[in-house]
Amino acid sequence: MEGLWTYLFYLYGLLVDAVFPCENLVKLQANELNRDQYLGRWLFIAAASSSSSSLETFAYVDSTLFSMNQTESPERLQLGAAIRLKTGQCVPKSWNYLLEEKSADLATEGRPHMRTELFSAKCPNTIIVQETDQDYQRILFYSRILHPEEHCLADFWNKASCLEMNEFLLIPRTQDACEFQQT
């Protein structure tokens, strides 16, 4: 069944490409970055890449709740994740992002080759990011609500297609999200 959904989203992406040209793909610049709009809770909705191997890490995920928080250091953000696997198991993870001066890109602490770029999104309460590391490049879609409107998802598919990322993965979100563990 997952293969059918992937194929349908691929066809949907082709249709979106025909209707919405790539000119709406806009990477955020440093002066456009409002860090406060990215703080708080986010749900992982979808991912895309030019290769299915770049999406393998998400194949066992049912849902993920993220929380982006400011640390005591103004140039560091902490991202926590509560990942629900398809088996029902909850897995906690955390990362630190380092804000680069005069850039809207985020560096991941401890991963010098990884780059995270932010893109403008058509819908409020959504985030589109591109992650690039030595072995992969992918674009990810997050929302503050569990089921964002279809045109918001279409905007994401369009941006992915404009980046020639035609392998799509919609996160199932069939189970309740895991809660964050207290540390």
From TrEMBL:
<dbReference type="GO" id="GO:0034384">
    <property type="term" value="P:high-density lipoprotein particle clearance"/>
</dbReference>
<dbReference type="GO" id="GO:0005319">
    <property type="term" value="F:lipid transporter activity"/>
</dbReference>
<comment type="subunit">
    <text>Interacts with LRP2; LRP2 mediates APOM renal uptake and subsequent lysosomal degradation.</text>
</comment>
<dbReference type="GO" id="GO:0043691">
    <property type="term" value="P:reverse cholesterol transport"/>
</dbReference>
<dbReference type="GO" id="GO:0034361">
    <property type="term" value="C:very-low-density lipoprotein particle"/>
</dbReference>
<feature type="signal peptide">
    <location>
        <begin position="1"/>
        <end position="18"/>
    </location>
</feature>
<dbReference type="GO" id="GO:0034375">
    <property type="term" value="P:high-density lipoprotein particle remodeling"/>
</dbReference>
<dbReference type="GO" id="GO:0016209">
    <property type="term" value="F:antioxidant activity"/>
</dbReference>
<dbReference type="GO" id="GO:0033344">
    <property type="term" value="P:cholesterol efflux"/>
</dbReference>
<dbReference type="GO" id="GO:0005543">
    <property type="term" value="F:phospholipid binding"/>
</dbReference>
<dbReference type="InterPro" id="IPR012674">
    <property type="entry name" value="Calycin"/>
</dbReference>
<dbReference type="GO" id="GO:0042157">
    <property type="term" value="P:lipoprotein metabolic process"/>
</dbReference>
<dbReference type="GO" id="GO:0034362">
    <property type="term" value="C:low-density lipoprotein particle"/>
</dbReference>
<dbReference type="InterPro" id="IPR022272">
    <property type="entry name" value="Lipocalin_CS"/>
</dbReference>
<keyword id="KW-0732">Signal</keyword>
<keyword id="KW-0445">Lipid transport</keyword>
<dbReference type="InterPro" id="IPR022734">
    <property type="entry name" value="ApoM"/>
</dbReference>
<protein>
    <recommendedName>
        <fullName>Apolipoprotein M</fullName>
    </recommendedName>
</protein>
<comment type="similarity">
    <text>Belongs to the calycin superfamily. Lipocalin family. Highly divergent.</text>
</comment>
<keyword id="KW-0813">Transport</keyword>
<dbReference type="Pfam" id="PF11032">
    <property type="entry name" value="ApoM"/>
</dbReference>
<keyword id="KW-0345">HDL</keyword>
<comment type="function">
    <text>Probably involved in lipid transport. Can bind sphingosine-1-phosphate, myristic acid, palmitic acid and stearic acid, retinol, all-trans-retinoic acid and 9-cis-retinoic acid.</text>
</comment>
<dbReference type="GO" id="GO:0034380">
    <property type="term" value="P:high-density lipoprotein particle assembly"/>
</dbReference>
<dbReference type="GO" id="GO:0034365">
    <property type="term" value="C:discoidal high-density lipoprotein particle"/>
</dbReference>
<dbReference type="GO" id="GO:0034445">
    <property type="term" value="P:negative regulation of plasma lipoprotein oxidation"/>
</dbReference>
<keyword id="KW-0964">Secreted</keyword>
<keyword id="KW-1015">Disulfide bond</keyword>
<dbReference type="GO" id="GO:0034366">
    <property type="term" value="C:spherical high-density lipoprotein particle"/>
</dbReference>
